[in-house]
């Protein structure tokens, strides 16, 4: 007889392994099928020989999980995120058992229903023309309602029945400016208040640049750097060939660099912002558009004894190649 000793929880982080433990009342060969429930297809099979217990990690076989990315737009939206849905079937000569279905998302840490996947505080600041993105987890088939209220009296109501249980809330301060100075974001699940976020809307000063990045949680975060320390262009020229008539072809590669610095931060906030340095994906919001960038530092100081905490980064973006 085959049976499951343990099964992974819903939304188990892929990086920690999605492990099923199978037991048998006698030593036998166990055939394993890894099944993608969204297409009802077998994505992989394996045979474990002569065992009475086995651990099966399906993480290497999981594909098609949608990565939540930052968005731009001047209207607030609430949209579902696609998740993976997997199970396994184990069989021997006379027994066959199927596991429960497990939802797989792009979270890097354990999450619970009703939680926000974010490393930033629930009280935040946002520029009058800036955006923010929130990932929220609920039980599948739950009704999610979001009421965004401004201190100027305007409101935005968003409603969604989540089939997958993972939703992306996009906050656009421009929908409420120029008169609003704060936003209150109330998230209800099946008519119960689950989370509340408070945004303070700040004027956008010249030189202020918002940065978005994929945080250690696996979800996007944002922070607005108020100070542009410098901007520069780095170019590299290479002569491809030179003819007898003294005509030449020159290749020029160039990138732009910008150095951004925060104001004084609490030690806790400085640590949160400093995770930009180890992010796999970073964007600058320039001219209202998300522009992919890379961080040149491999280290950032978020605490310095006797000095106020702040963060400074050099970002490279806008690579161009011209041949003349």
What labels would you give this structure?
seven-stranded antiparallel beta sheet, single chain, mainly beta, globular, Immunoglobulin-like, 2% helix, Pnp Oxidase, Chain A, 324 residues, six-stranded antiparallel beta sheet
What would your notes on this structure say?
The protein has one helix at 267-274, and strands spanning 2-6, 19-36, 41-57, 77-80, 84-91, 96-98, 102-104, 123-127, 131-137, 142-150, 155-162, 166-172, 182-189, 192-202, 209-214, 220-225, 227-242, 248-261, 282-286, 289-295, 312-323. It has 324 residues and is mainly beta. Among the domains are: 2-67 and 84-104, Sandwich (Immunoglobulin-like), CATH 2.60.40; 205-324, Pnp Oxidase, Chain A (Roll). A hairpin with a 4-residue loop joins strand 2 and strand 3. The model has no long low-confidence stretch (mean pLDDT 91).
List the helices and strands and how they pair.
Elements: E1 2-6, E2 19-36, E3 41-57, E4 77-80, E5 84-91, E6 96-98, E7 102-104, E8 123-127, E9 131-137, E10 142-150, E11 155-162, E12 166-172, E13 182-189, E14 192-202, E15 209-214, E16 220-225, E17 227-242, E18 248-261, H1 267-274, E19 282-286, E20 289-295, E21 312-323
Parallel strand pairs: 8-14
Antiparallel strand pairs: 1-2, 2-3, 2-5, 4-12, 5-6, 5-7, 9-12, 10-11, 10-13, 13-14, 15-16, 15-19, 17-18, 18-21, 19-20, 20-21
């Amino acid at each position: 007889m085959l049976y499951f000793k343990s099964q992974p929880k819903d939304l188990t982080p892929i990086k920690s392994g999605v492990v099923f433990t199978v037991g048998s009342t006698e030593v036998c060969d166990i055939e394993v099928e890894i099944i993608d429930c969204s297409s009802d297809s077998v994505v992989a099979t394996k045979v474990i020989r002569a065992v009475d217990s086995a651990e099966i990690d399906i993480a290497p076989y999981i594909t098609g999980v949608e990565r939540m990315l930052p968005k731009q737009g001047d209207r607030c939206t609430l949209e579902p995120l696609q998740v993976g849905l997997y199970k396994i079937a184990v069989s021997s000569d006379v027994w066959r058992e199927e596991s429960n279905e497990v939802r797989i998302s792009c979270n890097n840490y354990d999450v619970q229903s009703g939680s926000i996947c974010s490393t930033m505080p629930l009280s935040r600041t946002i520029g009058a023309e800036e955006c923010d993105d929130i990932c929220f987890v609920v039980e599948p088939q739950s009704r999610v309602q979001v009421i965004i209220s401004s201190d100027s009296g305007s409101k935005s109501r968003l409603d969604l029945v989540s089939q997958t249980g993972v939703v992306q809330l996009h906050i656009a301060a421009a929908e409420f400016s120029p008169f609003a100075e704060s936003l209150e974001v109330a998230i209800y699940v099946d008519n119960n208040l689950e989370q509340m976020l408070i945004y303070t809307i700040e004027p956008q000063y010249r030189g202020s640049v918002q940065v978005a990045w994929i945080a250690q949680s696996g979800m996007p975060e944002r922070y607005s750097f108020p100070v542009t320390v410098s901007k520069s262009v780095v170019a590299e020229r290479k002569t491809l060939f030179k003819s007898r008539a003294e005509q030449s072809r020159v290749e020029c590669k160039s990138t732009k660099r910008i150095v951004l610095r925060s104001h004084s931060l609490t030690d806790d906030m400085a640590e949160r912002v400093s995770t930009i340095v180890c992010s796999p994906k970073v964007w600058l919001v320039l001219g209202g558009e998300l522009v992919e960038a890379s961080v040149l530092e491999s280290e950032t100081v978020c605490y310095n004894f006797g000095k106020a905490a702040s963060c400074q980064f050099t970002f490279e973006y806008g690579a161009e190649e011209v041949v003349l």
